[in-house]
Amino acid sequence: MVETKKIMWMIKKDLLVLWRHKPRLLSLFLFPIIMITLFGYGMGGSLSNVPVVVVEQSNGPITDATLNAIKGNSIYDVKSIITDPNKGLQMVQNGEVKAAIILPTNLNDLNTTQQKSIVVDVDSSNQIAASAIIPATQGLFNQINTQIAAQKLQPILVQSNQVNSTSNGVNAQSITNTINLQINKLYGNITYLDFLVPAVIAMTILFGCMFGMGEVIAGERERGELARLFMTPTTITTVIGGKIISKLVQETGRAIILIIAAILLFGIIINGSMVLTLFLLILGALCFVGFGIMISARVSSMEDYQQSVMPIAMPMMFISGVFFPIETMPWIFQKLAYIFPLTYLNDALRAVMLKGVGIGAIWLDVVVLIGFTAVFFALGVTRFNRDI
Amino acid sequence: MKYAIETFDLTKKYNDFVAVDALNMKIDNKSVFGFLGPNGAGKTTTIKMLTCLIESTSGTANVAGYDIANYPNEVREKIGMVPQQFSLYGDLTVRENVDLCADFYGLPDDLKESRADELMELVDIKYAQNKLVKQLSGGMKQKASVVASLIHQPDILFLDEPTIGLDPTTKRVLWDLVEELHSEGRTVILCSHDMYEVELLCDEIGIINSGILAAFNTPRGLKDTMLREKKEKKDSNIISILEELREEGSVEPSVEFDNLKEQIERKNRDLKELSVMISNLDENMLNTLKNMPVIHEIVEHDSGRIVLDLESSDDAVTQIISEIIGNGGNITSISTKDPSLEDVFMSVTTRNIEEGVDDG
After folding, report:
1. For every residue of A53-103, which 3-state class applies, written as one string?
2. In chain A, which residues have their Cβ closer than 8 Å to the Cβ of B103?
3. Which of residues 138-157 of B touch A (CB under 8 A)?
């Protein structure tokens, strides 16, 4: 009975402090909305309207078809069509456009045996734009190449039905009806934002829990508040238990706000179970709270805590597949990713929110997260000092 | 229970550094005990072990009759602590902080309110009970801290520098509180660098230095010990000079020489100096005083002031005053030259440093 009262006091105390610290309270609500807005508008969605210039050096049906294909692709915003390749290069260098697509002089010559070289001068200083333009342009001209070959071998071409448009938006039929491309999107049109949202939620929980625990353990220890509690006949488990529950209440609230903001602002659809999503968020919060307790168990000040957490939290954020798929990272990062719990939380959240799978498909992630949580708590509670 | 606190070779080490070295002391129940020591002497570490905040490396202690290692929660129930560092939640009100502490001590709800009211009235903070603690002045915060520490009516209260930085009025409130707790039969352990405060409030004093209990006595006892040691040192220097002279052959062995030595050694009992100004001092009165057994030496000054070396018996001063007045003497001023507690503190802690240097 007494222990329940103490735990309730820990929760009440934290909530009262939160209520009386209006900037902190505001941050609790605004932080997730700011996060999702920044990532949504700043990084999310498909990249489109990248300014380009097209240099055409010959006229003919293939040039026309190519121009139509470029104009029809939302990734490009064709600022002008010129004939001088040097001027195109100059426009890129001046920053007027991000790329100059220079079509060859023999583009329309179907009888030539010479290679048709298409040059793309791209502003590689803008990594995001370049990384969007290069694959899109490669895809587009692969199709055109195929079309040229098809015209040469027209008699034996086989027609087939187009099922879907290409991922980069090339309308193959605008070039020739003989080219068909079929793309099967297993989980629908997943945008970068869709990919990002579950991980941003996980990352927000990560930072909220880690730095929050620093405040309630290391901060209170530094100010002597924790020592007063530990001078009463109270176990470490009771005090820590109270703090965990209090933090979980706050972080669950934060996660719900995040999800609502993502749905309202960006029309995110959660394909899987909302209950399972919340369960994963609470499990993740518990895991990161445990991590916070493990670190704060032996530090005496907030500064020490932050110095201890930052070298772990920052790499975890970048390596655990929040922004980029783990598979695209260098092999060493791929290996490192699996020592961070955030990787498993991201994986499970994406599976539930994007693929709509159930617990059966993510059980391994859940088990690993529970394992991390158990280890963190065991180390945290056993290493915890009443006073340092 | 005779002793509120008993320590048995209580030791705390941090790697190779010995913060507290085999501390043995007994603090009487229902007393006010002053625990002194320079910064870094091991005072706070000792208090932390006694309040079960940290574990000892070896040795143990009984606090309020419970062993600190085996019954830490029972110890915690019996003690209260007003830490040096302010430790209430700044974003909670005084009342909320007190309620929180009451619940952490498991106080029943019906008792909680009445006791909190009573204590807040006692230290005059009830009018600020609904203010956030962070909005209070230093003195008010300290009063709130005291209320939170006393809410469960502990048998032993630890006060770590309770009046540091406080104004004289607030200091007086806290001193009165200590006296009241004392009269209620509680034990108070007072850590302070304010020697006046310690002398005013404490029945016994322990001085810790470099982790070792360097002195333990009543304030009077500590001063007497210091005087005795000072005189012993001075006299032993004189005796060793006399011995050297005899060894050199400058002084022949004689009964007078042995008497002289005996007299010097007897003077070890002389502990006090009394300075008296007598307006009508004459030879007769001086001779009368010289013949008094409690007086061992009289130094006469031109101004009519005499400085007497006398025994430290309780009634020595009274005897001398009566004798002067009885002989028609007119005392215009009188003062004893007593060492202060600060002198004792300096002597004890410096001695330890010197010994440390010598040892090293």
Report:
1. EEECCCCCHHHHHHHHHHHHCCCEEEEEEECCHHHHHHHHHCCCCCEEEEC
2. 2, 5-6, 9
3. 148
Q: How many domains does chain A have?
A: 2
Q: Which pLDDT band holds residue B179 (cuts at 50, 70, 90)?
A: very high
Q: Which residue has the tokens 């139509």?
A: A68
pLDDT digits (tens, 9 = 90+) for B211-262: 999 899 998 888 878 777 777 676 677 667 777 777 777 666 676 767 776 6
| Best residue of A24, A215, A230, A231 to probe chain B, by most B CBs closer than 10 Å | A231
Contact B74, A213 (CB under 8 A): no
Q: Which of A194, A221, A171, A205 lies closest to A341 in space, CA to CA?
A: A205
- Please provide the average confidence, as pLDDT, over all residues in chain A: 78
Q: Domain with A98 in it: what CATH number?
A: 3.40.1710
pLDDT for A175: 39
Picking from B165, B185, B163, the residue whose alpha carbon sits closest to that of residue B174 is B163
Please indicate if any CB of chain B lies within 8 Å of the CB of A383: no
Task: List residues bridging with B158 in a β-sheet.
Answer: B81, B189
Nearest 5 degrees, angle CA B302-CA B308-CA B312?
A: 165
Using DSSP bridges, classify how beta strands B305-311 and B331-337 pair: parallel, antiparallel or unpaired.
unpaired
Contact B77 A233 (CB under 8 A): yes
Torsion of CA B222, B227, B229, B233, to 10 degrees: 160
CA–CA distance, B97 with B82 (Å, rounded to integer)? 14
Give the architecture-level CATH label for domain B223-341: 2-Layer Sandwich (3.30)
Question: Do A150 and A210 have their domain in common?
Answer: no
**Is A230 within 8 Å of B89 when comparing Cβ atoms?**
no
Question: Which pLDDT score, from 0 to 100, does residue B347 have?
Answer: 81
Q: How would residue B100 be classed by pLDDT, with cut points 50, 70 and 90?
A: very high
Burial of A262 (0-12, 13-18, 19+ CB in 10 A): buried
The residue with greater pLDDT, A247 or A370, is A370
Contact A231 B96 (CB under 8 A): no
Chain B's closest residue to A223, CA to CA, is B87
Does A152 lie at the interface with B, CB-CB under 8 angstroms? no
Candidates A16, A225, A386; nearest CB to B53: A386
Pairing of strands B212-217, B305-311: unpaired
> What ipTM does this complex have?
0.71
Q: Which domain holds residue A213?
A: 2-44+191-383
Q: Which of B76, B100, B112, B151 has the most A C-beta neighbours within 10 Å, making it the best mutation to test the interface with A?
A: B100
User: Could you tell me if A31 and A134 lie in one domain?
Assistant: no
pTM of the model: 0.68
For residue A241, give how far its alpha carbon lies from the nearest alpha carbon of chain B (Å). Answer: 14
Q: B35-69, pLDDT tens digit by residue?
A: 999 988 899 899 999 999 889 999 999 999 999 99
Contacts of A228 in chain B (CB under 8 A): 81, 83, 87-88, 101, 148
Give the relative orientation of helices A2-20 and B94-104 as an angle to the nearest 10 degrees.
Answer: 160
Q: Classify burial at B309, counting beta carbons within 10 Å of its beta carbon; exposed 0-12, middle 13-18, buried 19 or more.
A: middle
A301: left (phi over 0), alpha (psi -120 to 50) or beta: beta
- CA-closest candidate to residue A25, choices A15, A35, A12, A33: A15
Q: Which CATH superfamily is domain B3-217 in?
A: P-loop containing nucleotide triphosphate hydrolases (3.40.50.300)
CA–CA gap between residue B204 and residue A216 (Å, rounded): 40
**Chain B residues within 8 A of A16 when measuring between CB atoms:** 91-92, 96
Please indicate whether residue B280 or residue B61 has the higher confidence score (pLDDT).
Answer: B61
Residues A16 and A150 in one domain: no
Report whether B47 contacts B160 (CB < 8 A): yes
